[in-house]
Amino acid sequence: MLKWSGRILVFLLIGAILNVGVAWWLGWRVLYQPGSLQITNEPMEPGEFVPQEFRNELLGPAGLSISRTRQFGADHVQVHKGTTMRWADLPVIPLDTLWPHWGPLAGREPREIYESMTNPIGHTARGWPMVSMWCAFEQGTHGPVQGGIHLGHKQTLDTFIVTDLVLPLRPIWTGFAVNTAFYASVAWILVAVPAAWCRRRRIRRGLCGACAYPRGTSPVCTECGEPLPSPSAGAARS
Known about the structure:
Layout: H1 2-29, E1 37-40, E2 50-51, E3 57-59, E4 63-71, E5 74-82, E6 85-87, H2 95-98, H3 110-116, E7 121-126, E8 133-137, E9 145-146, E10 148-155, E11 162-168, E12 170-171, H4 173-204, H5 231-237
Antiparallel strand pairs: 1-4, 2-3, 3-6, 4-5, 5-7, 7-8, 8-9, 8-12, 10-11
Helix pairs in contact: 1-4
């Protein structure tokens, strides 16, 4: 029992290390692409969008708005308060569909955030198959990072889109647990399948499955003490 518990802990540790490594690799390599941006200017109070002097822009009434970029392994959220601008060719998406389920905004009411915030909020997360680590940007825009390491900026080729390259340090516990279990399972399969094949091959050759020592008449291996299957059982497997 203790032996299996130790193995499980080792693979979970490997899974956690791989989880962090993948999240950091995504934080370093992922660049936001055109079409990944979603934005809402749904106001806290009812109101109409008022056309401005620029034909391709509209001015929204005072309220709370979210811009969110979601793609493979990356999720970036910015929350703004006040009268905000949006591009007219981007669809307006309801606020609740863009509200993040991770980070400090999860489970909080938009109005509570609206009444308490003084500066824009910017959170970014990385991880796969679920986002599992996040960090925050001061003032909600490009710049100093809280709870992460800022590696600089990089612009997506042939676009105006700029991505902050970060190594997030704050865990998103649900995603962290799921990803750790996923990578631990992958690591176990990569180790267990070759080991089982090797053990089976040794037994067929009349050797101890654990240490490959030639078997004798003893029911256990005289070299390592591993219980040995009966010759009839080995023949049946063959």
